[in-house]
Write a structure and sequence with these properties.
This protein has 236 residues and is an alpha/beta fold. It is 27% helix and 31% strand. It is built from 7 helices and 15 strands. Strand 4, helix 4 and strand 5 form a beta-alpha-beta unit.
């Protein structure tokens, strides 16, 4: 498996040089070259490795990485050695001073291979949360939840087997949930995106056959986040 690599550098000379090094390394695949952090942002989720200049036109590379929830492995490059201490705050794989040799680049990539191999060997914990259930705490896996319905100060968490009803609001639950498995489709409903079978003009139809209303103010966001980028066929 090749390590998908994204390059961010605003200097065309270094863009070309780094791209050639990446493309000449058999186990790396260059998936994009960008001149700024924000230009690269949309494709970042595809990358296993980011080779990033520290000095960028829109923000420093270190600041960019600090603001990512799940950054890829990172090699920082720069013309200024005094940035080395700053960049290690975000635990990069390596720090390369511009003017580095191909041999020094390969040394960095070997470190990437080791980190990549180690991270792939660690089992990924399936996301879950706890709710109070009588005198106990019930552990609920994200994938078990079909939807959540807010009613006054109670949140009804619906699974195929039962309904949990802790004293909780949707905004509080949204603060606790990780990732984008759940999507708000109505002021009273939070739905597991994997439980959606089809979408009509006014409703979502779920795997258990239930219908959930789509709130007017959430319709555009539902289309943008859940439908638009995943359409593989259109009529007309």
């Amino acid at each position: 498996m090749k390590i998908k690599t994204l390059i961010i550098d605003d200097d065309p000379h270094w863009q070309l040089l780094i791209r050639k090094l990446v493309e000449s390394t058999p186990f790396l695949e260059c998936i994009g070259v960008f001149g700024s952090a924000m230009d690269a942002y949309a494709q970042l989720h595809e990358a296993d490795l980011l080779i990033c200049d520290i000095e960028l036109p829109d923000m420093k590379g270190v600041e960019f990485i600090q603001n990512l929830r799940q950054p890829p492995l990172v090699i920082f490059i720069t013309s200024h050695a005094n940035y080395a201490l700053d960049c290690f705050e975000v635990a990069p794989v390596d720090f390369l001073l511009k003017g580095f040799t191909p041999q020094r680049f390969l040394k960095s990539i070997e470190r990437v291979r080791e980190r990549f191999k180690d991270e792939r060997s660690i089992p990924v914990m399936e996301p879950y949360f706890f709710v109070r259930d009588g005198m106990n705490y019930a552990q609920i896996r994200y994938r078990e939840v079909l939807y959540m319905k807010s009613q006054d100060n109670t949140l009804h968490i619906v699974t195929p087997d039962r309904v949990y009803s802790p004293t909780l609001t949707i905004p509080k639950m949204e603060e606790q949930l990780k990732g984008d498995i759940f999507i708000r489709v109505h002021r009273s409903y939070l739905v597991n995106r994997l439980a959606i079978v089809s979408i009509t003009k006014d409703d979502l139809i779920l795997t258990n056959g239930e219908r959930v209303s789509i709130g007017e103010q959430y319709r555009a966001m539902l289309y943008r986040k859940h439908i638009e980028k995943n359409i593989v066929s259109r009529n007309g």
